[in-house]
Design goal:
Distance between the termini of chain A: 18 Å
Radius of gyration of chain A: 18 Å
Low-confidence stretches of chain A: none
Number of strands of chain A: 10
Order of helices and strands of chain A: EHHEHHHEHEHEEHEEHEE
Strand content of chain A: 25-35%
Strand content of chain B: 15-25%
Shape of chain A: globular
Oligomer: heterodimer
Number of helices of chain B: 11
Helix content of chain A: 25-40%
Largest sheet of chain B: 11 strands, mixed
Largest sheet of chain A: 8 strands, mixed
Strand order of the largest sheet of chain A: 3-2-4-5-1-6-10-9
Helix content of chain B: 25-40%
Distance between the termini of chain B: 22 Å
Shape of chain B: globular
Chain lengths: 250, 364
């Protein structure tokens, strides 16, 4: 069974504008959840008639809602009562829950935490579900917001590092038909030193990148330009990803 | 396709002991919940009393991993092995307890910690599905094996008590006054626990080749989302009803008993009863919850409960629901007494924050 990328969207936190129709739903949400919901809505806009019972959510993240977790810890340190809302949002799959509720998606909602290739881990799971016809649509996304503490850890571990890590999110909507076919995906993660994970030196097609959303953003941009590489391979100290894309039906 | 998925090894550590001790305590209707006083928080928890380290700390997590691994007979893997870890928070309090070293023990680091401890080869991943994480991890493992993607998967569910989680559930007004009473008329909340559950899954063919015992077969599963609320379950039990339907192929597969989520909160237990009624009407299979004995072990719960379901299949019984005195519904199906399985199969289900629900059906 063919698997197609029906729609894609990428969004940086710095550019995020919450649409009016989501403002009420997201008024108490953290940035991690806001990014997840807004980017998902953008991708889902391409398929307004999705059957929520035949749609799944596959969210990959390297660090999850880290700042939210540290905010809870801050309250504990200060001996202040923890906000129940903040606590419930500190759970890694809260973003998937928000997407499911707002977009009426009743299928599997999986959140996968992966240091190495979070987007591609999620993509592989969504690809498999469409390929097997267990779902008609799979919403695949990566969301990263990081934290001040993580920034300090990077600076301490990698003095002189200058690559910024922009917070953002990327979403793909997979289906059986679409302008780009995802013919194959392989994800291999290798153990590596913590420094290598924080350095995030990734290379693909003579390109180098150094932030956790880079590979997903790059592929999303390629697809937006209708450029579908027959073989796309990314390599890093923490493993390898290989994809095969081809032209589908518009 | 590699075909049937079997469990070939299992082990657990929680407040009630290891798998054999926990079974013995459950059959004796014994609760291991004890009072905990922490700043201005007073509650009962399922604490592993002889773990030496401070709650919420990385060292406590490591001690529990080491103890859990010792419960397994088979810890070898191949390059085609996979490790799936189910955890909600890892060592959530570590940033509070040790300011001198780089923090570790976060949820996203636990798989690596476990793999290092046993030198486990192959890929590793972490499932974050709140209190349904353990069952979701078992389902992911089953799918990988069924498709022939990997030879074997070690599924580890682990969570420890922490100030972070205790304070959070306290603020949600979800903690029980005293010990929890799953499915009881007078239930008023949950008790948190801690533990590790480990299951080794492979194909029936590979188990036979290795002379590994097939302790149970995974005969069905389901995952679905309520899409209604982040912390509260759906009153109509839409998500859980869907997964029970999926796991049992619309109640066409025989279920000898249910190891329910049964947290002891008013809304969770009512939601589960609704789901059972939706699928089986007024005659659901016998069911029970283990959380009145060991507390709610969060991300580890699904794996620990699956381990106990394996013992249930072996013994042909489900233990009493510790803490239950007066069932709100189905007094013939749930109670403070041990019951016989009505068939050689047991359904284990969990639900979590984010509206996630998951179930597996195990056969002997």
């Amino acid at each position: 069974m063919t698997v197609a990328v029906l729609a894609t969207s990428s969004l940086r936190l710095a550019d995020m504008v919450i649409p009016d129709h989501l403002a009420r739903d997201l008024r108490r949400a953290e940035e991690f959840i806001q990014l997840a919901v807004v980017v998902s809505q953008q991708a889902l806009a391409a398929a307004p008639q999705v059957d929520g019972h035949r749609t799944g959510i596959y969210l990959g993240t390297a660090f999850g809602p880290m700042e939210c977790n540290f905010s809870v810890l801050d309250d504990l340190v200060m001996k202040e009562p923890i906000s129940p809302t903040l606590f419930s949002h500190s759970v890694f799959n809260a973003a998937s829950g928000y997407i499911a509720r707002i977009s009426k998606i009743y299928g599997p909602a999986l959140t996968m935490t992966s240091y190495g290739w979070p987007f591609f881990r999620a993509l592989q799971s969504g690809w498999q579900a469409i390929k097997e016809r267990s779902l008609d649509h799979a919403l695949v996304l990566q969301v990263e917001t990081y934290s001040t503490l993580l920034h300090h850890a990077r600076t301490a571990m990698l003095p002189g590092t200058s690559c910024p890590w922009p917070a953002g999110a990327t979403a793909w909507l997979l289906s059986h038909n679409g302008p780009c076919l995802l013919d194959y995906i392989s994800v291999l993660e290798e153990p590596c030193a913590p420094e290598a994970r924080l350095a995030r030196q990734e290379t693909w097609q003579q390109t180098e990148a150094c932030h956790p959303l880079a590979a997903a953003e790059e592929l999303t941009a390629l697809i937006a330009r209708h450029h579908f590489p027959q073989k796309w391979q990314a390599e890093a100290a923490y493993g390898t990803v290989e994809l095969k894309l081809s032209q589908g039906e518009a | 396709m590699a075909g049937e998925v079997v469990i070939v090894d299992s082990g657990l550590i929680c407040a009630t002991g290891n798998q054999a001790e926990s079974w013995h305590n459950l059959m004796a209707n014994h609760s291991s919940l004890t009072p905990l006083e922490l700043s201005n928080l007073h509650c009962h928890v399922g604490r592993i009393v002889d773990l030496p380290d401070e709650i919420g700390s990385r060292q406590r997590l490591v001690s529990l991993i080491r103890r859990g691994i010792n419960q397994l007979q088979i810890t070898t893997g191949t390059e085609s092995s996979h490790l799936i870890v189910a955890t909600t928070k890892g060592a959530a309090d570590e940033p509070l307890t040790d300011h001198t070293k780089p923090n570790s023990g976060f949820a996203w680091q636990v798989a690596e910690m476990i793999a290092r401890e046993i030198n486990y080869p192959g890929q590793r991943s972490t499932v974050s599905a709140a209190c349904a994480s353990g069952t979701v991890a078992i389902i992911q493992a089953s799918q990988m094996i069924e498709k022939g993607e990997v030879d074997q998967v070690l599924v580890v569910g682990i969570d420890i008590l922490s100030r972070f989680v205790l304070a959070g559930f306290s603020q949600l007004q979800a903690l029980a006054e005293g010990t929890c009473r799953p499915f009881d008329k007078k239930r008023n909340g949950l008790c948190l626990g801690e533990g590790i559950g480990l299951l080794l899954l492979t194909s029936k063919k590979r188990a036979a080749e290795r002379n590994w015992p097939a302790l149970a077969t995974i005969n069905g599963w389901g995952i679905a989302c309520d899409a209604s609320h982040i912390t509260a379950p759906c009153r109509q039990a839409s998500g859980l009803s869907t997964v029970l339907h999926q796991a049992t192929a619309g109640a066409t597969k025989t279920v000898g008993a249910i190891n329910a989520h049964g947290t002891g909160t008013i809304y969770n237990d009512a939601m589960e009863i609704t789901a059972f009624k939706n699928l089986w009407g007024n005659t659901p299979p016998p069911f029970h919850s283990v959380k009145g004995a060991m507390g709610h072990c969060l991300g580890a719960a699904g794996v620990i409960e699956a381990c106990l379901a394996v013992t249930s299949l072996h013994e042909g019984k489900i233990p009493a629901t510790v803490g239950l005195h007066e069932p709100e519904n189905f007094p013939n199906q749930v109670g403070d007494r041990n019951q016989d399985l009505t068939a050689a199969s047991i359904l284990s289900c969990n639900s979590g924050f984010g509206g996630i629900n998951a179930a597996i059906l195990l056969n002997s």
